[in-house]
Amino acid sequence: MKDLIQKLGPILVGSATVVANLRKLLAESRPNGADARIDAIENALQVQSTLNESLDVQVRLIHELLKKTQKRLQIVVVALIATGTVAALALAVAAMK
Fold it and tell me: How many CB atoms lie within 10 A of CB 80?
């Protein structure tokens, strides 16, 4: 998901420039009605770009939180294994007496 966002981000950011260039070309060949549509497309692409940047920041934050949680869980698993080993040794010593 993160890779997809990184790949699509520059496309959407650059697409606002493409739309502006299209507007210049279409303004010469089309009536004024096309300007409103092109403005709407340009605004929609800018909003989409902003949302993608926000989503990217949120995904990075979640990714970092998951890394921290994974490290904590690894520590808990090691502690549980150590506790189980000590308990097994204590049972073995108690059984031998």
Answer: 10
